[in-house]
Amino acid sequence: MQRRHLLEAALTALPIAGQAQERFPVRPLRMIIPFAAGGSTDILGRICAQILTEKLGQPVVAENITGAGGMIGAQRVLDAAADGYTLMGGTPGPVTINPHLAPRMPYDPLRDFDPVVFVGDSPAVVVVRRDSPIRSIGDLVQRARAAPGRMTFASAGVGSFAHLSGELFKARAGVDMVHVPYRGTAPAATDMVAGRVEVMFENYPSVLPFINGGELRPIAIGTARRSALVPDLPTVIEGGVANYESSSWFGLFARAGTPAQAITAINTAINEGLRDPALAARLAGMGVEPVGGSAADFRAYVTKRFEETGALIRAARIVAE
Known about the structure:
Elements: H1 2-22, E1 29-33, H2 40-56, E2 60-64, H3 71-79, E3 86-90, H4 92-97, H5 109-112, E4 113-129, H6 137-146, E5 152-155, H7 161-173, E6 178-181, H8 185-193, E7 199-203, H9 204-212, E8 216-221, E9 247-255, H10 260-274, H11 277-286, E10 289-290, H12 295-316
Parallel strand pairs: 1-2, 1-3, 5-6, 5-7
Antiparallel strand pairs: 3-9, 4-7, 4-8, 4-9, 4-10
């Protein structure tokens, strides 16, 4: 009789134990931000940490681990357990760009990471100095074709988002322009203001202060359709360059093999947070459009961008410095 009661008690406890294993989270989480404090990636990562803290009921500690174009921070996530308690705020650099440029890549982003949620998108904008005679994409293409190999475009460095956006424009428009790399967006924009370079294809948040200050003037945006961020700004496609679409993005990643319930909990929490009108307004002020969606949607998007970026880098014969 005693043995039967013990067996019944054990069987009764099994569902409770299973439920306990499925609970997430039961302790604090860690958010790895693979870039320096103060930039848009850092701000977005900390916004996500705040959302998760509020929605999941556990503190989320944000930590900046910089170096190697975001790859050191990415590797730190892969050094942690695949349990959902260590996340990365990911951008194109460490996920879809650097893997095609680094001679000895320490990880495979499609194999080693689980995309969790697409947080926000930042479109490329084509900017010129405020007194530039270039007023439209048509003007830009005409000037570039009139002087092949003489027109210059600036970027934040070889292999940067701005570099790839410019190379994509060259390919889609069929023009020959000279790339001038800088060590960051600020010095590139400063030389544009001084008239040393003519155009830049940079993500909107990076040049927004220069636009707001009247130093640079946007002539087109790199979205497929007009963006709610700047609805009066025509797209590059509207300007006559077919199939041009370029945008940076930010999303959360976990180490591959993370339990589905953890990914679902994080994805659900971020999607709920992105529906807050106050947060949407804050992101718009940063030049970011909230996206959201399922983890599967984000995986498909990242995979597509990875393949497109690799093809562009190979076609343009871009080699890391």
